[in-house]
Write a structure and sequence with these properties.
Six copies of one chain form a homohexamer. Chain A is α+β, with helices and mostly antiparallel strands. The first copy, chain A, has a single domain, classed as 6-pyruvoyl tetrahydropterin synthase/QueD (Tetrahydropterin Synthase, Chain A), CATH 3.30.479.10. Helices cover about 35% and strands about 30% of the residues of chain A. In chain A, strands 3-1-2-4-5 form a five-stranded mixed β-sheet. In chain A, strand 4 and strand 5 form a beta hairpin. Chain A is elongated and about 60 Å long. The two termini of chain A are about 20 Å apart. The interface between A and B is medium-sized, with 22 and 22 residues.
Chain lengths: ~140, ~140, ~140, ~140, ~140, ~140
């Protein structure tokens, strides 16, 4: 059993708020992250998969394939986008890093298994000081 | 003559576009950075000042003072903001990293000189792969 | 179940030594880290907490609260301090990174649980080449 | 139980290929990594060991000893070497990062136990975007 | 006048040696970098260009264009290559980081000027501890 | 003319204070950096030298020689030391990063010239947010 991790990056705008709150309530709960005019981040995404090494190639998975999947199922949907307004797989969810990490897991779990590996962890940095990890349960 | 640099960080949303262009023209010139729904970055700002060391303190400037000035004149205006919509000192300017670096220079030149030093360089990272430097002329 | 991590930093002096050893014995066991005139580090502290996401906020914990707790219970006690001489929660302990990580766990376990989360890991970097992890048992 | 990690680095050349494949087959499976003229990397190796703290020293292990072991059993064998041609413990194996991480585990497991600790993880970065982790099973 | 920098990366094998030296002489002068079986690096290349901001776009140059030029004139020639054997613009030169930085300057000077900017600096990291800078004269 | 930079690191304790000030005055001017019980840092030192490439070697200087000089004239004097109490070349000076950078320049200028290069810059990081640069005048 080996674990391999691929890093990809995306830049996006978002806002933390609830539609059923007033601006004052949102400011109280979410602070400056609730700014109605949005703010944004350079997100750093680390996708870890696990499984057995293919004896023919010495690989768990070909990293080109893993990178392609992450780009097809995640990066193209979020890079240079507004997470609240434009990301289908975040519709109806608060645009927190926690929820984003879980949604990315759900996007990747099946395509990773089709590569012959198992998704192990989503690690998502919002800044150099804050990151979230999700293991699928 | 010594140079000293202070790093501060801010997160903001922006969009590259011209009001006198159609969305198609904006997309053609600015690519995905023209997304009408915004995107964003973790900006890393390095402010370099220069001058002579104060013999009484061994300091060029007290870094607490330099940090306070950068926060008062720059960070509070841009952090968790929309650069196009909310930043007074960027009004009427294209929200490129180049223009932002120059505007930050203009915000800081006078307060730095009041600290007894001279502003030398603004270095502004938009991502780990891209940064701009401005020396005031 | 989600994990979220907050990084905080502090600068401190310390010395590795035993009072019941001579300077020669301390030098033999602890090397240059036993210097009686102290040395110091920029410590980087990563605090990981885990738990369920609050459906109302999309947060596990508000990172402002987590940051405040880390500052109140750890950073204010160690930043710009001498770990051997001035840190109440390290009194009577060898000032190794291992012991410091465990003491930080003990400082944070209860306040983190009062936030509604569970402390999962203390990761403490002494330098870019050395770090310690503690999971509470 | 505490975990402590030491980082060491090495620079090496390698090539991903199978002798029983033609150059075309190798290119097809391994892409540009199969270049017959080799390419190379700055590998970053993180070795994590675990165990109980020695009450006399406050250490799990003396990091000087851990560093010496990593250098003796790994770095001297791979640094500024060709992994395919010159590394005894990689003979007969595909020079993938996965296989290299496992071989490094096998080199270090016994000497670490002789230090009084237990090897916990080999984490090997091939680049800032790709790394492998191996836990010994 | 503004400066803008784009980072690109490449992985390559190389060897420091002179054909007119014996292996012993090469070892004496170039140390382990003279290994006849090659070694390699993850090179980090920072290309800085300077000039005036285009008032229509707010750009000095479009970073997509700058990135494309660096890839066409440099990265495609060196990435996953052997610098001594396969890089046309290094033929007949010692494969030192110094010579490589100068050769990269010569590759980029003209295409950068065709973009409407002026090449200012090539900064080339061989490792986190070593880098070379070249300003064209 | 080429520039080449070598990074070395050291850990040290220091204190910012004047003997002719009371503790209150020192606290007022130097803040928590004046703690009489010391604090410390992981300093990162970047030494840049310049000159012409030696045609026989492709080197400006052999980086092993440059590293040896930095270690002999600087690192051995400051690593795991108390800068105020134990560093001969800082005697009688305020232990600020500015003064330390200048003193390091004075230690290195002559030995670098004996290597056949010219010292160009001392860049000294006290933390990831603060650094000083000195060009010798």
């Amino acid at each position: 059993m080996i674990h391999i991790t691929r890093r990809e990056r995306f830049n996006a705008a978002h806002r933390l708020f609830r539609e059923d709150y007033t601006d004052e309530q949102n400011l109280d709960v979410f602070g400056k992250c609730s700014n109605p005019n949005w703010h944004g981040h350079n997100y750093h995404l680390f996708v870890t998969v696990k499984g057995d090494i293919n004896k023919d190639t010495g690989f768990l998975v070909n990293l080109k394939d893993l990178s392609r999947i992450i780009n097809d199922y995640v990066i193209e949907h979020v890079d240079h986008k507004n997470i609240n307004l434009e990301v289908e797989f975040m519709k109806g969810k608060l645009a927190s890093t926690e929820n984003l990490a879980i949604a990315i897991w759900n996007q990747l779990e099946e395509p990773v298994s089709e590569l012959g590996a198992q998704l192990h962890k989503i690690k998502l940095f919002e800044s150099e000081n804050n990151f979230v990890e999700y293991y699928g349960e």
